[in-house]
Structure formats: C-alpha cells, structure tokens
Amino acid sequence: MSDRGPGRGPHRPPRPFRNWVQRRQGSGGSQGAVGAEAWPVLTVLCAVLALWYAAALLMNLDQARSLAGEGAGTADLLGATLALDRPLLPAPHQIAGEMFDSIFGHPVSSARSLVFHAGVTAGAAACGFVLALVLGIGLAVGIVHLRVLDRSLMPWIVASQTVPVLAIAPMVVVVLGTIGITGLAPKALIAGWLSFFPITAGMVSGLRAPEPVQRYLLATYSATGAQVFALLRWPASMAFLFPALKVAAALSLVGAIVAELPTGAQAGLGARLLAGSYYGQTLQIWAALFMAALLAVLATGAVDLAQALLRRRRGGRL
Asked: Domain 103-313 maps to which CATH number in 1.10.3720.10, 3.10.129.10, 1.25.40.10, 3.40.50.720?
C-alpha cells in the first residue's frame, strides 16, 4: 500500500524537505556570490600593496644606503629601507603602526591622539553637512516651485562650484576673522559651501521626478500644492537625495580639512597634515590621510544606514 498522499507526485519529496533544500541552496548561492565579488577586490588590494612596497623600496633606497653605510648587506639594506623614521614613501605596515600608536597609545583628550584630531575635523564636517543639507533642500524647493529662482539662482549655484576651495578658504577665514568669527564657524561654513551643491542638484532632480500623469491624478482629487509636495514630490525625491548625501558627506570632510589649513588651527586632521609637512613627519601625514579616508567611509556608511532604515520603513523601496 502506497504512503503517498493525494496530489503528490510519485517521486516528489515532502514539502518541509524541499523547503530545507531550497534554503540550503539559496544560502550556498549567496555565499558563492559574495565570494565571487570579494575576489576581484582582494586581487586589486594585493596588487596595490605589492606596487606600494616596490615604490617604497625604490624611493627610500638612497636614504637607507646613506644611513646603513657601505658595508651593509642586501638584506640589511632592504630592512633599513622599510624601517626609516622619516621615509619619503612609508610602507603600509609603517602607516598601520603609526595609526595604531596614535589611536591607542595616547589618551583621547591628548593633542597627540589621532582620535582627538579626527573628532575635531568630524565635528566641523558634521556642522557643515547639516548647513549644506538645510540650504540645499531649501534652495531645491524654491527652485522647483518658483520659476524666477530657477532662472536666477541655478546658474549662480553651478558657478559657485567652479571656484577652487583652496582659493576661497583663506578669504573666508580672513573676512570672518575681522568681524570676530573664528573657531568652528569658518570651517563649518567652508565645508557647507563645498557640499551643498550635490544636495541641491539631487533634490531638484528628485522633486521634478514625478510624471505629469501623477500630478494630474492628484489634481483631479483637488490636492493642494502642499499635499502634492508631501504625497508625491517629497517621497519621489528620496531616491535622489541619498546618493547626493553620500557625495556631500565626503565633500564636507574635504572642506573641513582644507579650512583647517589657512586658519593655523592647533587641532584637526588639517592641522595634523600641516604640522607633519613642517617637520618632515611623513608617517604622521599618511596616518592623518588614512584617518580622513576612514572618516569618509564612516560618513557614507551612516548615510547608507539611514537609507536602509527608510527603505525598510517604506516597505522595501524608496
């Protein structure tokens, strides 16, 4: 007597078993996809490290030869090349060691701590980012709803980004300094000036993204301008806002670092870079550069997290 239930094929396994097999196959497939994506990244990373070590050996060889003396062997010479205190091009392990010592070797409140300087720069960049966010969204809303602003402001907004930040930063610092505004405000202003453009451009595109048929549909329901904005234009702009925020977050960090250079600041990654260049501390310079890159990664990661939370709240899409 057969134990197959009604409607079940002659060789079809039970549904719980099929579901378990599908889950296992799906997880294996996803792991394989992750591995396939990771291999190219690791390959490029290994190639960059190999080229970096080769360049460090070539650039630091003369300095190591002068310090090691004429009787030094090849192994000693190569070892000295990768262990100089002030190399022309530090090796990756030297930069990693300098970052480790600067982060964990000093209290966070110490001026020798890289975390302290990163916090100062991150604070200025965050203030500039908030300023750029408010200004960019406000300008975009005005440009979309008022044709006069579209014709008068948009060309000037585009032209504002053609001025090099290295040229305008000293002028902003000097002008604000003459009226008694120093410290965080000039750095935040420069960071906001550099990062408001992608937010404005992205929001203008996003607020204009809804199709005419969608606006006509709301018009048939006698929707007001505020209702069209809240129900149609603003939700549609989110898909454009978050990519713009990623760019703006990185630009605000660049603006904060550049703003620290002409101010003669005693704290911040820009001040760290400037002090390293004055005293020939190349390890300090490269450690500050990598810390700045790490801050940029964290900033874009925070934007990605906010985007994921909003997507989850809106049912899986922006």
From this structure: 1.10.3720.10
